[in-house]
Amino acid sequence: MSDTVTTDGDILTLSNVTLNFGGLSAVSNVDMNLAVGELVGLIGPNGAGKTSIFNLLTGVYPPTSGKVTFTRGQKVSNLGGMKPYAICWAGIGRTFQNIRLFRALPVIENVMIALQHNVPYSLATAFLHTLRYGRLEKQIRDESLELLRIMGLEDDANELAQNLPYGKQRRLEIARAMATHPVLLLLDEPAAGMNPAETADLTELIGWLRTNFNLTILLIEHDMSLVMDICERIYVLDHGVLIASGTPSEIQHNPAVIEAYLGEEAADA
Amino acid sequence: MLRQLRPVLLNGIALVATFAIVYLLMRVGIIDSFYQDTIALVCINIVLAVSLNLIVGFTGQFSLGHAGFMALGAYTTALVTLHFPTIWGMLGGIVLGALVAAAIGLLIGLPTLRLRGDYLAIATLGMAEIIRVLMQNFTFTGGASGLFPSRYLNWTWMFILTAGSVVLIANYIRSRAGRESIAVRENEIAAESIGVNTTKAKTLAFVVGAFFGGVAGGMYGSYFYWIVPKTFSFMMSFNILVIVVLGGLGSISGSVIAAILLGVVNVLLADPNLVPIRMILYSLILIILMVFRPQGLMGDKELSIRLFRSILPKRRRPPDEEPVPAGEGRLEPAEVTS
Ligand SMILES: Nc1ncnc2c1ncn2[C@@H]1O[C@H](COP(=O)(O)OP(=O)(O)OP(=O)(O)O)[C@@H](O)[C@H]1O
Ligand SMILES: [Mg+2]
Question: Three-state DSSP class for B119?
Fold first, then answer.
C-alpha cells in the first residue's frame, strides 16, 4: 500500500476520505495533512462536517472510503479499521464539542481514568491492593494532579465534574485528553461558551501545551480571533467539501470562504 | 504509613468484631437455627447483590440472570460435596462453581457486550432460564426433585466467604479496572476516546460479577440441605436486583445494608399470622422506599467515617484537616494511598 502521498514529517494524512450517513455525505473526498508540531485550524459553517472528521479520525465512525494514516516515529498506522481506544493508545487525544465528561465522578478521577492505560496494573493488584497498588495509585494521582494544576483546576480536584462551570468543564476535557499522553491533540470547539477573557487564557494555554508537550494540534473553532491568532494553517470545510486551505491571512481574503460564511449569514437572517 | 493503614485497620476491627459477636451469640444459643438460616440467607444475598451491583450499578450493564450464575455455583458445589463429603470438598466445589459461572459469563458476555444496548438483559434472562430448565431435566442434577447435599458451611466459612467476596469486589472497584467500569457507565464514547477498551472492561466486570454470583450459589448449595431448580427462577434474579436498587446502584455498602434490612424484614414478617399479607407488606415497604428514596438507601455513596462526619453537626477541625464537603462519602483511593 504505497498509494498515500506521505510526505516526510507528516503525522496525519487523509487521502480522499469520505464519510456517509445514509444518503448524507458529511465528509466528501477530503485530503488533508498535518506536519509534526503544526497547529492547524479546521473551520467551516455549522454542519460543514468538522466534527465528523474528528469522529472518523478517532474511530467513532470508520470512514466510508479513503485512507487515514497516522505516523508516530517509525510506526505508521492506518486508522481506518481501528477501535477508538486503540487510536488513543496510538497517540491521538481529543475533546468533544458537546462536553462528554464523567459527570458523576470527581474531577481528579476524570483525569486518572485517562492516565491509567499508561500504567502497568495487573488484575491481581486490583483485587488484592498489594503494596504495588498503593504505589501505582499514588503515581496516577500525582500525575493527574499535576495536569490539573497546569489546567488551573487543582482547587477543583475533588469537586464533581458536573458541578464545574462551563469553562472549567472544557479545560477538564483538555486535561483528560492530555492524560492519555497524545502526540496529536484534536480540540473540538474548546472555547465554545467561554467569555473573551477565558478564551484569551485558553488561547495562551493551548500554545503553552503545544510547546511543552511537543504536540501537533488540530483545532475546530468558531471563534475566529482564536483561530487566526494561533493557527499556522487553516482548512475550510463547507458541506463536507474542503473549499480552501492556507495561512490565516490567505483564508481571510479567500473569496470562496467569504462566500461560504456570507451564505450562512444570509441563511440565518 | 499509619494514616494509610488506618481505614484498613478500622475495617478489619469491625469485621472481626462482627464475626466474634455472632459467633458468641451462636455458642450461647441466643441465635437459634431459625436466626442462623436468616443470617445465612443475608450473607448469600450480600454476595449476590454486591456482585450484581458491580455489573449493573458500577458498569451500567443491565443483567437479569444472576440466578443462573447462582444455580451453577449451587449445583456444582452440591455435586462436588456429594462426591467429596468434607469441608475441603465444599471449598473446592465453591471455587469450581464460581469458575464455571465465570466461564458461562464469558460465553454470554463476549458476544453481547460488544453491542450497545440491552442485548445483555435479554441474553442473561435467556441464559438463566436455560440453566434452570437443564437442571430440571438432567438426571445427574436430580431433575425437578433436586439434590440433597450435606451442610458444610459453618459460620466461620460463611463469614470468610462473604467478607472476602465483598472486600475483593470493593478492591476491584477502587482500582484501574473499577474506574474503567465506572467510565463505561458514565460515558462510553468518552471512555473509548481516552483509551478504555470498553468491551473488555464490560466483559471483565461481568465475568467477575458472575464469578461471585457463583460463590454465593456455592454458599447456598452447602448450607441448605436441598436445592431444586425452581429456586433459581426469574424471581430470584429479580429479588437480587431489588436489593441492589434498594441499596443504591453503585454503592457496595448500600447493597450490604439492603440485604441485611431485607433479612430483618423477613424475620419480622415471619409470624405465621402475617403469612397471607406478607407479600403485600413487602411490596408496600419497597414502594414506600422507592417513593421517598428513588436513588436507593445509599445512592451511589459509601458508608464511611467521612460520611458520618459530614452528617454530624460540624465540629472544630484541626487546621490541617480538609473540611469534608457535603456528600463526600464516595470510595476514595486517597483514603488508602495518601
Ligand atoms: N451520527 C450521525 N448520523 C447522521 N448524520 C450525522 C451524524 N453526525 C453528523 N451528522 C450530519 O453530518 C453533517 C455534519 O455534521 P458535523 O457535526 O460534522 O458538523 P460540524 O461541522 O461539526 O458542525 P457544527 O459547527 O455545528 O459543530 C450534519 O449535517 C449532521 O447532521
Ligand atoms: Mg461540530
Answer: helix
Interface predicted TM-score of the whole assembly (ipTM), two decimals: 0.90
The closest CB to that of B4, out of A116, A134, A158, belongs to: A134
Asked if residue A208 has its Cβ within 6 Å of ligand 1, the reply is no
Nearby residues of A24 by Cβ (< 8 Å), 6 or more positions away = none
Q: What residues of A are in the B interface, CB distance below 8 Å?
A: 58-60, 83-85, 88-89, 93-94, 96, 100-106, 109, 112-114, 116-117, 119, 121, 123, 125-129, 133-134, 136-138, 140-141, 158-159, 176-177, 179-180
Q: Report domain extents, chain A.
A: 1-91+181-269, 104-180
Backbone conformation region of residue A37, classed left if phi is above 0, alpha if psi is from -120 to 50, else beta: left
* Measured distance CA(B238)–CA(B49) in Å, rounded: 11
Q: Where are the alpha helices (DSSP H) in B84-221?
A: 87-113, 119-137, 155-173, 176-186, 188-193, 198-221
**Amino acid identity, residue A147?**
L
Give the cell for residue B155.
459460620
- Calculate the alpha carbon distances from B314 to A107, A159, B302 in Å: 25, 20, 20
DSSP annotation string for B264-283: HHHHHTTSGGGHHHHHHHHH
Kind plus residue range of the DSSP H or E element containing A196: helix A196-212
C-alpha cell at B28: 450461647
Nearest 5°: the CA angle A240, A242, A247 is 140
Asked if the C-beta of B334 comes within 8 angstroms of chain A's C-beta atoms, the answer is yes
Residue A55 in contact with ligand 1 by CB distance below 6 A: no
Q: Quote the cell numbers at residue B320.
A: 490541617
For residue B266 the three cell numbers come to 423477613
**Residue located nearest, by CA, to atom 26 of ligand 1:** A46
Looking at CATH, the fold of the domain delimited by A1-91+181-269 is given as Rossmann fold (3.40.50)
Interface with B, mutate which of A95, A100, A105, A113 (most B CBs under 10 A): A113
- Per-residue confidence of chain B (338 residues) as pLDDT tens digits? 556 677 778 888 888 898 989 889 988 888 888 889 999 999 999 999 999 999 999 999 999 999 999 999 999 999 999 999 999 999 999 999 999 999 999 999 999 888 776 789 999 999 999 999 999 999 899 888 889 998 988 999 999 999 999 999 999 999 999 999 999 999 999 999 999 999 999 999 999 999 999 999 999 999 998 999 999 999 999 999 999 999 999 999 999 999 999 888 888 887 778 777 877 877 887 788 888 888 888 888 887 666 655 555 554 444 444 444 443 333 333 333 33
Position in ligand 1 atom list of the atom nearest CA A22? 4
Note whether B151 and B223 are within 8 A (CB).
yes
Q: Does B176 touch chain A (CB under 8 A)?
A: yes
Q: Are A243 and A263 in contact (CB under 8 A)?
A: no
Distance CA B40, CA B48 (A): 12
